[in-house]
Amino acid sequence: GSFAYLRVELGDFVAFIAAGNILLEYIIGNAAVARSWTSYFATLCNHHPNDFRIHVSSFPDSYNQLDPIAIIVIIFICTLAVASTKGSSRFNYIASIFHVAIILFIVIAGLTKANPKNFTPFAPYGPRGIFVTSAVLFFAYVGFDAVSTMAEETKNPAKDIPIGLVGSMVITTLAYCILAVTLCLMQPYQQIDEDAPFSVAFEAVGWGWAKYIVAAGVIKGITTVLLVNAVGQARYLTHIARTHMISPWFAKVHERTGTPVNATATMLAATAIIAFFTSLGILSNLLSISTLFIFMLVAIGLIVRRYYVGGETTPSDRNKLIICLVLIVGSSIATAVYWGSSDGWIGLVLSNSVWFLSTLALWLGVPQAKKPRVWGVPLVPWLPSLSIAINLFLLGSIDKASFERFGIWTGILLIYYILIGLHASYDSVMESKTTAREVNSSL
């Protein structure tokens, strides 16, 4: 996954910071999905989405809707995830077929109640509203990275992983857009329920019976998402533990089940705690920051991988690569800052011009040092450079409070890495080199 890729291309420090945010991303993502499970379960029982949560008025806002059902669901998912990888895959396969049928029902039945007037106004909050929403919608792209964490358990990863990643992303994005259009045609945007939108929408158009089908289908789909993320996050933690940046205890695999029980249980315990207290709004914004930050780092890592090889790339080409990367990242940050603080367009033209010229200079002025052997990202450096620009631009649309929480978490990661992770990973490397020398001398 991203951790292994960044560790090779940008070193242990960047990989560890990314790894901490990847783990945070999975914990927050599963916590948010578990809370959605409770909302749809409430509508299935003919209740308001918040009825099964416990309101504690003495707690701060956004932390005062306690969700015990989310904890029960997470415990169930943990049991499935540690029992068997093959069993989890079979469950996902069956659940996915059922989920596709529900999606088709929602689209076909929902469009029979479509009212084109609901699309007026088409963009009620203007371009800024679109980009703010786009930043939050990165929430939906967390699970795709989990595909790469299953490489060790795939027969032909060089072929199967790219097909799985690209194919699932294209299909899911298309389904996401169709469902969004259907929902907005069924209900005016002001009336869409944040917790259980489709169930409430069917009830609003007079199809109260359909909300039960929708709620049951969504619960099935959410359960699948929870299980996929539980499996993926445990593999991430296991891989990080193998580097000794965190305790190797997390890397232990159960002899009978063949699953990383310690990593799975730990991650889902953290997920349960977050899901019990925290509202969906806080979770989605913080999750989007982590996801966008990691995507941006991976795009930088891809450029470095293609343009730099130690011992082969000349100092001149290396320096030009560094300058181009600094200008690409700097101009992208400038675009995000200017967009967030001003309504003018001159600054945007200047910053985007710098981004374009920097990418052009990298494309024309620095030779690629490495070509992909089996499958590679096309249009390098344009595509990864555009990814850097878009990710940083969307980061500029997220609220200040979410960045403060992100900063606190990153600060904790830095302290841990300096005091513990750096030394543990160094000792592990030295131990591996010593073992290798001993083996060579005995041969």
TrEMBL record:
Keywords: Amino-acid transport, Membrane, Transmembrane, Transmembrane helix, Transport. Gene3D superfamilies: Amino acid/polyamine transporter I. It comes from Cucurbita maxima (Pumpkin). It holds the Pfam family AA_permease_C. The chain crosses the membrane at residues 66-84, 91-111, 131-151, 163-189, 209-232, 261-283, 289-309, 321-339, 345-366, 373-394, 406-426. GO terms for molecular function: L-glutamate transmembrane transporter activity; L-lysine transmembrane transporter activity. InterPro entries: AA/rel_permease1, CAT_C. Residues 375-425 form the Cationic amino acid transporter C-terminal domain. This is Cationic amino acid transporter 1-like. GO terms for cellular component: plasma membrane. It is found in: Membrane. It is a multi-pass membrane protein. The keyword Transmembrane applies. Belongs to the amino acid-polyamine-organocation (APC) superfamily. Cationic amino acid transporter (CAT) (TC 2.A.3.3) family.
